Amino acid sequence: MSNRKLSPVSRQHTTLPAAQPVAPQTGAAHGFYTGGLQRLPLIQRAPAKGGKTAAPATLDRVGFEKIMKAEFGVQTIKTGDQATQEGVAGQTITGWNSWAPDAAAGEYQQIVDAFRDFRKAFTTTPMVTDIVFYEKRYIVVNGTVVPDTDTGAAFGTTDLTIYKTGSHMYKALPLDKSNAQGSYGNAPPGSLGVTYKGDPKSAPLIAPIAWGDNFKRVIAHELGHGLQSAAMNVSNAPDPDMQKDYNKAVGWTVAVPPKLFDITVKAVQTAIAGGTTPPSQYEITLANWNDPVWGEQPVSAYSLDNPGDDFADSVMAFVYNPQMLKKRSPARYSFIDSRRSKWLPGMFSAPKQPGKKP
Fold first, then answer.
1. How many domains is the chain partitioned into structurally?
2. pLDDT of 235
């Protein structure tokens, strides 16, 4: 299927190369995968009156650290070093480069905005004690260390690693729930259409043209992993069975590797409840995940990688497009919405300000 011309906005940028989905790599725990999107050239912002290009508001490193520590309880923020990454890889990394966000491009502000957007949706954020910046992630393949260019960020128990890769990748979401009529509204201004090779009547996949808006989605995805940690991994975890319950609620099997099925189908509900594999005709795969046939539709191809990333991408959609999530994936939306208050004890609690009533 060719790129769908989705709106007057997307038609203005037909010179951009098409973004082609490919099968995601597996095994990158808590990583962020682009869904096979090409790194597309940045669209220049329109000149302001007088012919000068409008400059983005800037937040420098000092201001960034002050905000992250005061508002979100981050204790340490550092630019990673080569020795640390080589220690993880167990061998020398050639061509290693240091990286920290570009203040002039607004990247520090985009990280802050993502945290604030998450807080707006959940009233607080996961506990993040440490943030470290690297140019890229490195992995060992067949005994050789190689760059992993598909991971934009990673979350541990309370630590967040952010890679330069994440600041320049597109993260698409469906415009709406896919329907049999193939009828949808226009994409919002500043959007880019992304190719999907399944049913041509499926909902268009839309990514913001601005790198920064995609970067915020990358960070929100990782905070979704932080939400998992807040529920299950912290001391006195408030919801230790959260992921297991989520898997049942949205249609993941307990098989290894797990598979995803349409939980709106009675036969699927019965099989999932009994711990067995549902009939194969109800399996949701990379080739059909956005097709109209499904009653419960995931929000991305990356959601098919594993249940944990399904949850994290659904959390990201809950932050940035909750109405779309509610329409496409009512089981996912309901799970997050109904249990978010249960996770609060494991999340960051801002200290009370002197003189303020609790």
1. 1
2. 87
